[in-house]
Design goal:
With 247 residues, this protein is of the alpha/beta class. The relative contact order is 0.16. The structure holds 1-deoxy-D-xylulose-5-phosphate and ligand LD2JLWAY. The site of ligand LD2JLWAY has 12 residues, from strand 8 and helix 10. Its EC number is 2.6.99.2. It holds the Pfam family PdxJ. Keywords: Cytoplasm, Pyridoxine biosynthesis, Transferase.
Length: 247
């Protein structure tokens, strides 16, 4: 996840595993989805090993570690169990995310400002295994500055509020918050990624923001893949974000 003029697409395959876990079957296999995504132009593969194992399992992460041609972005909560697992698999990228057991999905960003010492220790520990650590945070100046202070080289701005906005004013306000967050992150010297809730109808405005390094997208890709196949879904999204980033 290095900064460049070309926006990158990280494909999150969690919800391929959601479908598998719904019936306890061996299919669909998120590993196959990852390989198809790479063939269709994904720049990286994102997986979130949740504490409750509702979708991705350890088995998926271990297999992916062996077969990915691109790179893994491993999303994890800041727990001792996850820290030890990350040390075992040494992913290229790690994104620290907040987790609560009952949430439907990741509802907000990590409160870095409210727990700087704890997050700094986690960033230091995970950097020692050679992973580039990013922090999944809200587009909030306080959190962005704290992310720089704790030594994370990268942040991922949570785009969920933008994705959930319903009125044109709300959408414009939330988009502006992301734009301001990107600029603030770049001024702090951070690599700035973004993601959550992005889909084919809302992604272009975010992809057009100058300086964003990578978008991580999952749920919408898996949903669209039902109709066009996983490779088609990824290729369509990649074309959309590259075109938007050129303007
Ligand atoms: C951290 C993040 O935004 C995504 O990885 C998201 O967590 C996907 O998984 P869930 O839908 O289970 O939250
Ligand atoms: N970090 C965000 C991500 O990986 C994908 O989130 P979503 O597109 O599944 O909402």
């Amino acid at each position: 996840m290095t900064t460049s003029n070309r926006i990158l697409l990280g494909v999150n395959i969690d919800h391929v595993a959601t479908l598998r876990q719904a019936r306890g079957t061996r299919y669909p296999d998120p590993v196959k989805a990852a390989l198809d995504a790479e063939e269709a132009g994904a720049d990286g593969i994102t997986v979130h090993l949740r504490e409750d194992r509702r979708h991705i399992q350890e088995r998926d992460v271990l297999l992916l570690k062996d077969v990915l041609q691109t790179r893994m972005n491993f999303e994890m909560g800041v727990t001792e169990e996850m820290m030890a697992f990350a040390e075992r698999i040494r992913p290229a990228h790690i994104c620290l995310v907040p987790e609560t057991r009952q949430e439907l999905t990741t509802e907000g960003g990590l409160d870095v400002a409210g727990q700087e010492a704890r997050i700094k220790a986690a960033v230091e520990r995970l950097s020692r295994i050679g992973s580039e650590v990013s922090l999944f945070i809200d587009a909030d100046e306080r959190q962005i500055e704290a992310s720089r202070r704790v030594g994370a080289p990268a942040i991922e701005l949570h785009t969920g509020r933008y994705a959930d906005a319903t009125t044109p004013t709300e959408v414009a306000d939330e988009l502006q918050r992301i734009i301001d967050g990107v600029n603030c992150g770049l001024n702090e010297g951070l690599i700035v990624n973004a993601g959550h809730g992005l889909h084919y109808h809302n992604v272009e405005a975010v992809a057009a923001i100058k300086g964003i390094n990578e978008l991580n997208i999952g749920h919408a890709l898996v949903a669209h893949a039902l109709f066009v196949g996983f490779k088609g879904a990824v290729a369509e999204m990649k074309a959309l974000i590259l075109a938007a980033a050129k303007h």
